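Appendix B, record 7
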Amino acid sequence: MMISRGCIGILSLWIINSCQPSDQGLYLFDPESINEQEVRLSEIADDINYIPLENNTPIGLIYDNIEFVNDKIYLSVRDVGILAFNIEGKLIRKIGSIGRGPVEYTFYFLFTVDEKNENVYVFDSGQIIKVYSKIGRYVRHFSINELGHAEKMKYFNSNLFVLQASQFNNTENEWVFLDTLGNVVKKQFRKHPQFSTNWSSTYPIYKFNNSITYYNIFGDTVYSISPDLIEIPKLTINKGEFRLPKENLSVDQMLSKKYLYLSKLQETNKFFLLRYSYNGNYLVLVDKKEHSAKSVNLEYLNSVYTNGIINDLDGGCFFLPDHYHTEDRHEYLIGIQYPYQIISRAKSKEFKNSTPLLPEKKMEFENLATSLKETDNPVLVIVRLK
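Structure tokens (predicted):
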């Protein structure tokens, strides 16, 4: 089940001709070689469902961290904290609370959940990881300040994977694995010489098929780590002037969109999914078998993407995948959609005149739009992949 973020705008899709395997047999992604082509949701998916999040606790911005664990949905919400919902969208509980007390957190953008006992690990300010039980109570904390600046964190194979930010001089490692008490299990020494810059971007990280994958935005290779903590190259990013320089940037350079910012990286059995900005904003689907790629030219307005993959399953809003989930041997992509987008789409002539592949789902979308108010909480969109 996946969530989408926008419904308005014109969708254009592109083929990346240069996403060919390199000499090492890896995919080579080059953002400078693109050709236009249209793609529809039915090409990758066969079902779509929606999970409205109940309105007991008002939700504005959902940070870019959603975890599905044991029929629960964990979200990090601005000015609210970390929330746990059931699969129907009912709020179960809040995990900890915002504050400056010893058992509270001030920074909660980064969190991860232990699938075994559902402990929640929150990366708080001061390079401190705070641990909360499945019922939301504070358990303990430990500092990772001596490791250098951490960028991302994910629970994996009974350990905590901590990805380091290489643009800081005090960062000695590419990544570190910790046990759940904060003890170092394994380190990977940094791949690049020490450097310092005043600009960075999100370091993508995801779990797929019992491995964890990450990309250091200043490097040229995406790496996957196996359960025995062995690192394996997965795909490469082509070299060019679009690569982030290892030096300070001026404000004009930061705003020029002349550099590649790979903000999101995901994977399914069939595709790599890359979202990035470079002379615009794009979502790219790379076919892992055919060595070809399709890219959506994304439109961004008022902090929300207004387009994505054309939704010809139920005729609803464009779909923009944010997260990946597996359950009962099925794969799902998840996105976030806001009630005003759903309501607006249901009232549009395009929707009323559409003939989607799943007519019964079109009726469900109409009923959903009727049940919503524009001030309601966001809706998770769940797309089942073929």
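Remarks on this record: The first helix runs from residue 251 to 255. The two ends are 12 Å apart (CA to CA).
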